[in-house]
Amino acid sequence: MDAPTSLRYRMLSGLPVSDYVGKTTLTDLDGSTGITWTITLTPRFPGVAFAVRLGIGRLVRGLVAEAERRARSSSAAPSNHETEG
After folding, report:
1. Of 2, 46, 59, 67, which alpha carbon lies 20 to 30 A from 28's?
2. What is d(CA 46, CA 48) in angstroms, rounded to the nearest whole number?
3. Are 23 and 5 in contact (CB under 8 A)?
4. pLDDT for the residue 62
5. Domain coordinates in residue numbering, the chain
6. From CA 25, how far away is CA 30, in angstroms rounded?
């Protein structure tokens, strides 16, 4: 795995929260990649934190599933490289 292996970010607008900080960390797991995603936030209204985490969690799971699908399909595709003999 090549550096960088983590990304930290802040959301400045778009959700009813403040102090939103996220971090995504990639780790090598014997030939595959582990993804750890964490966020901290301060809700502006009661119940917002749960809803935001639920929505973002679904988004992240969808992105990971799509990345896995693409990785599987690209590893199964025949190579475009030909050798001359």
Report:
1. 59
2. 6
3. no
4. 94
5. 6-75
6. 16
Q: Please report, in angstroms and rounded to a whole number, the separation of the first and last CA atoms in the chain.
A: 34
Determine which helix (DSSP H) or strand (DSSP E) holds 73, and give its type and residue range.
helix 48-76
Whether the full predicted model's pTM is greater than 0.70, yes or no, is: no
Nearest to 10 by CA among 26, 18, 2, 22: 22
pLDDT at position 85: 47
CB 26 within 8 A of CB 34: yes
pLDDT tens sequence across 14-68: 889 999 999 999 998 888 888 888 989 999 999 898 898 899 889 889 988 998 8
Kind and range of the H or E run holding 74 = helix 48-76
Amino acid at 46: P
Q: Which two tokens stand for residue 61?
A: 């799971």
